[in-house]
Amino acid sequence: MSMYVYADMVFIINVMMNSIILLLTAWTAGINFKWWRILVAASIGSCYVLVSLLPGMIVVHHVIFKLLMSLILIILAFGVKTSRLVLLLMGFFYMVAFMLGGAVVGWLYFWQSSNFFGSSNIVLTNLSWTHLLWGSGIGIFLILIVVRRMFPSMIRHNNLYQVKLEYEGRSIELTGMLDTGNGLYTVIGRKPAILINQYAIEPILSQQVVAFLRNNSSEMWLTNLDKCVDLEWLSRIHVIPYHTIGSKNMLLAFRPDRFMVSNKAGFIDASDMVIGIYSGTLSGDGTYAVLLHPQIMSELSKKEGASICA
What we know:
It is built from 11 helices and 9 strands. 49% of the residues lie in helices and 18% in strands. The relative contact order is 0.11. The longest helix has 29 residues. It folds into 2 domains: 144 residues, no CATH class; 151 residues, no CATH class. The protein is α+β, with helices and mostly antiparallel strands. A hairpin with a 2-residue loop joins strand 6 and strand 7.
């Protein structure tokens, strides 16, 4: 029996499924993404599938080649720069892919009236759009509802770090969580910004600054800066633009004397960061009071590598 493969349909279906997998990977990991990068990576993945259908292309079916291709897709889609984040996204990528693929196969098994395992190749070859859409829909539902509820506490625990801040001879130690979706930078100098709860940062600030923050609403901090009498603190002020749904706002930030993050070797200096003051609560259960910038991991990796070479 002859079998025909329609390259255009294979390409379209794979672009669609690859895009869904990459979008769910980003959503599950809680990171930002750009649509054009997702589509480029999905298209490259579809080209890989087409090449794998050509005669004599057995090498592309090898597990090492598949892992390499997955790594390329992750980097193309998200532009990640740290090995830790790459491994995290790879794990989410395969978890999402297996759940989505398993849902499609499970849906086919549910509706198959003959011996499914004996005829699975024929069934999968003649997979209809209806079965694909229903199976994918169930897989997406499971990932959005089940996975996001099962894993957040585990993910959050693995991304917690101890941080230490020093300013004007005072210091505090807090727990921070790595926020891979944090893309905040200062307007001048484009320095990465870390968010800290107002109540958590107050112990290292002067009484004048604490009084200013408490006596003015967070929306008026930048407008009423002239009412703060601590000139040393004012000389360290930075402005951070950020977006919320339907609006653009500015955050007040300042540069501390020193900012350190813990790792296996102890505390490592990461003083190139600025501190954005957040008037709300970052963690509802009080687990952390700091949201770390993903560039922290890049800085830690560089300094860990330097210490090893030394």
